[in-house]
Amino acid sequence: MRTRPARSDENLMSQTIRIGLIGLDTSHVSVFSRLLNDPEDPDHIAGARVTTGFPGGSPDLALSIDRVEKFTSELRDQRGVRIVGTPEEVAEAVDLVMITSVDGRVHRGQFERIAGCGKPVFMDKPFALTSADAREMLRLAEEKGIPLMSCSSMRYAEQLADALSGGREGITGCDVSGPMAELENPPGLFWYGCHSVEMMVAIMGTGCREVRCFRNEGNDLLTVGWNDGRVATLRGSRESHHKFGALLHRKDGAQFADCSTGRPNYVGLLEAILASLPKGYSAVPPDEMIEVVRIIEAANTSRACDGCAVAM
Q1: Who's near 160: CB < 8 A, 6+ residues apart?
Q2: How far is CA 144 from CA 33, 109, 133, 170, in A?
Q3: Which of 188, 254, 277, 300 is the most exposed place for a label (fewest CB within 10 A)?
Q4: Residue 32: what pLDDT?
Q5: What stretches in the chain show pLDDT beneath 70?
């Protein structure tokens, strides 16, 4: 899959980019459509508009199916979004597709249904619930020449982005913290832990060697080792504050990023999507997309055996 701009489509960039949403069962579709479709919003992002949506919904997941009607009505009645009956109809009608289904189990199947349309795709978190599915989607994207991007909005938290504006040079480790709510599905860290893991990978890059995850009723504590000897920790809490933060350790000092401050993370995320996918590449490298999934897989395995070491 291309990770750098391969072409300049002047016609596409000179007009409003039409965005389609597949899966209207998450609050993210409300935020995305507000930021893109409402010019009166103080954080409005010009140049793109949500025009088409497919409701979707997972009947066996209450958090999904119980919210579909609410968000579908909001997008149709308040944001002027046309609601259609299949994912394929969405992909055929737009310039860029967002697979926003809250249930990560359905992402691969939905992507496979629309891959033939060849449209750029952003896939909301979690990218996949297995690294096998993640690799297969990236393989198919490469085969079809589809720019494919997936990440948590926490990658684009303003304070974290500022801390990483000069690159990763000199980073020796990090300590990340954030809320760690749980659901039966998606399991373990795939529901809310994925945000903190995304921050960790954004800071550290790829090359994870080993994961240990200790869980008790109120907390998860991860220690993650990299092949080059660097170490990161992640503290996830179910009982204390619900704020994200990261302490970056560099050879010349430490830097704290308070990710509970600054502009909304979704603004940075949408700006990154629109600056890359319409130009034919993903702002997030494919190997980092897979690394997030792999670390969560290993953490879920480790927490099930009381913190045993899981090699990557």
Answers
A1: 154, 199, 202, 203, 246, 257, 259
A2: 28, 15, 16, 37
A3: 254
A4: 98
A5: 1-14
- The per-residue pLDDT for 197 is 98
Whether pTM > 0.90 for this model: the answer is yes
**Would you state the pLDDT for residue 1?**
40
What CA–CA distances, in Å, run from 180 to 51, 119, 190?
Answer: 34, 34, 10
Q: Is-contact 204 230, C-beta < 8 A?
A: yes
Q: Which domains does the chain have, with CATH numbers?
A: 10-150 (3.40.50.720), 159-262+294-311 (3.30.360.10)
First to last CA, the chain: 23
Please report the pLDDT score of residue 274 as a whole number. 98
Query: From residue 172, how far is each of 39, 205, 254 by CA, in Å?
Result: 42, 11, 10
Query: Which run of H or E residues covers position 123?
Result: strand 121-123
User: pLDDT value at position 183?
Assistant: 87
Rounded Cα–Cα distance for residues 230 and 258 (Å): 22
**Tokens for 248?**
């970056």
Q: Which amino acid is at 82?
A: R
